[in-house]
């Protein structure tokens, strides 16, 4: 064993470039997984701290169904008029919205510090509630626009206590003054705290609350108080545990982070082929030495132990380096993830990186496990060989050719298993990812046979046309043990690149088509802070609808209501002049659907129908002001704005179920020739004169905003698939570089028989370009299948929506570019070395 280990270490020292390339692939693969885990965990941890900062010690939350709470309820609770004898329950009101300081988006929370201190059972005084002392407390009540920020956020914005600055709230610019900062460790990085009355003024929600935090004692006493409180609550007000609400919020991002983790695993899967290529070549280089050692008495178990031991050590080093690289990449990736979560879900400010212990364990398992799996096949092959056969390369190549034919059968089985996963497990996202990875493995398994068949066919075709091309192509077919793995890894990465590119383009095309269908009005006016309950005054609605140039208008009210499936988003609308044409129905016939809609039936969006397994003809129970109401479902419509889905009902139906007369939005349809910008100016002037803050956007501006959010969301996807592509390109370069360097004797012999240095370099270039072309040829149809898997299976199961497939040449260009660059890069050094190497050195043999 000592002799075997010494021979192993000597070989590794003599081939450092090979060792470094294998480590680079493993490091990049492991680093991608660690980076995604860090980004997801850091964003989740930041939001958990933010929720803790908002909820504080509250055990339950009182909220309205739908809309917002009247602050008179809080007064009744505090004075014990609602539930006599509930002396142990504590309450704290708050109003939530959003504010922007410069480019920084923050969650605005209006609180009553006295109630918050009482909720936390803090000592008398406002210091604990305000994060400071009496000076902050005095300024809180006496200073107009007084706000508090997290210390780190204030430092990022270059604001110090006493600084005056502007805040954009509810579409209006407000003057604010920073009276103090809150501790970094408190989860305040994404929050802007102000007095409740100040928040009501800024958000246009006087007399209204978003929620009332409730603290009930633990144990039987708390359960009795909870039951008594529920029994006495007015209609439309619900009491729910804060933990359950937080879990619902976290569940929003589960599908998003799952997709990111799957893409990171793709980088590791491609890296596995790179490591396999490097380790198998390292074994092949030592076949003669290992054959001699076997003849001298080394057992199969000893040879196998040394080779797998090498792989395990390599895996440990790769895992350690990958963790360090993952932390470095994670610092960049966490910003992209946080921005996407801000765009799609909720405001989160990530200021510290979280590295979970599970991520370290995953990195170690990925590094060592990948290296052992990659080394197992070549190690078993060489350990099982008879000593005399281990010296013969022809024996190995004949075995590889037989294996390539076996792999065709394996590819067929993998494809069948992939299809079975899709058809049998019709809703499982995990099964969808398994099917996707089985498809990629099928591509890899099919590649060796495809490479050999195309190489031999091209060699026969070029027999009379170019002896040089025939020589190059037959050598490719005769060296499958060294070329097939590299081409398989590249083909798999190119497949993933094409699949993701087609999926992104298809999603963008579907989103654009949906926006064109849905956004029919020319100008949209909305209440800037719908979560605060602020709406458009009816007088202002009448004024805007009567503006010169406005030929028609539509109305909408968006709110959240309770149902037998939990809280659901409801959009109540009065349709505009285009009627139901603004909605793309995917289930139900239009005339019947819209007739039932007018009579009080519901329409549900595609994501909601998928998530709740509902279909037209069934009923959905909503908790109305008078109690639960089971309403019929008339149809299902396409929608990309909310992955959890929404319910659509007529505005008249909504107002019959809930006493809520306010409007969230207004769509204005202009007469032909009416200038859009001029009308937007008139809308803002009328709203300003009415003392109402509104958001006004044109049809084109909303489309641009939506597509901008889309591009930012898929920027992460592009970063991850380029990382996977980088691993594949590195694998091709390293594998082909090692193969070409191992052919030094063969090329020197050809040179001595008359092959010129230029022709020698051309042979190498032809070989690498041909292999890149074969990888691309295998990847194009497989990439389209992968795109179908991503759109019809993965996205469908993760988000519930249907995506139309869009195919165009630009979607394949990155893959073509990568294949050509990787192939050319793999040829440069061997071609230069072959042309300049002395013939005597190349022909020398021991």
Count of individual beta strands: 21
Termini separation (Å)?
Answer: 25 Å
Give start-end ranges of low-pLDDT stretches. 123-129
Query: Pairing-aware structural class of the strands and helices?
Result: alpha+beta
Q: Report the β-strand fraction as a percent range.
A: 15-25%
Which term fits the overall shape?
elongated
Mean pLDDT: 79
Tally of DSSP helical segments: 28
Largest sheet: 10 strands, mixed
Helix content: 55-70%
**C-alpha-based Rg, rounded:** 33 Å
Which helices and strands appear, and what pairs or packs with what?
Elements: H1 2-14, H2 16-55, E1 60-64, E2 69-70, H3 71-78, E3 90-101, E4 104-111, H4 113-119, H5 127-130, H6 134-142, E5 146-150, H7 151-156, E6 164-169, E7 172-182, E8 191-195, H8 196-203, E9 208-209, E10 211-215, H9 219-232, E11 237-241, H10 242-251, H11 254-285, H12 287-295, H13 300-344, H14 357-384, H15 393-424, H16 429-461, H17 467-478, H18 480-518, E12 523-526, H19 538-545, E13 550-563, E14 566-574, E15 585-587, H20 590-598, E16 602-605, H21 606-612, E17 619-624, E18 627-637, E19 646-650, H22 651-657, E20 665-670, H23 676-689, E21 695-698, H24 699-742, H25 744-752, H26 757-799, H27 810-836, H28 839-843
Parallel strand pairs: 4-8, 5-7, 14-19, 16-18
Antiparallel strand pairs: 1-10, 1-11, 2-9, 3-4, 3-6, 3-10, 5-8, 6-7, 12-20, 12-21, 13-14, 13-20, 15-18, 16-19, 17-18
